[in-house]
Specification:
Layout (H helix, E strand, L loop, with lengths): L4 H14 L4 H8 L3 H8 L7 H10 L4 H6 L7 H6 L10
Helix pairs in contact: 2-3, 2-4
GO molecular function: DNA binding
Pfam family, one: HTH_31
Organism: Ensifer adhaerens
Length: 91
């Protein structure tokens, strides 16, 4: 499951590279600007959701894919803080 803007951006970058597209090409194909793609892939948390979803669909990702994606390793910050389960989390 995708838990952060950084994980989402990394998944988009992985798919883009698998398609052998440049950031410019993805921007053109998705109708966004190259700067948006750079910020999305770098995990900028304030990216616009609708544009981010258009980009995800452009590289072949759907919302269901985001839930099924294996979690990425915790960042150093997450390691130090630990993962706090949310209400109803069955961990």
């Amino acid at each position: 499951m995708i838990r952060s803007a950084q994980e989402f951006g990394a998944l988009v970058r992985q798919r883009r590279k698998a398609l052998a597209w440049t950031q410019t090409e993805l921007a053109t194909r998705s109708g966004t600007g190259e700067r948006f793609i750079v910020e999305l892939e770098s995990g900028k948390p304030s990216c616009q959701l609708e544009k981010a979803l258009v980009v995800a669909r452009t590289v072949g990702l759907e919302i269901g894919d985001l839930k099924a994606a294996p979690p990425s390793p915790a960042s150093a910050e997450e390691d130090e803080l630990g993962f706090l389960p949310t209400f109803g989390d069955k961990r």
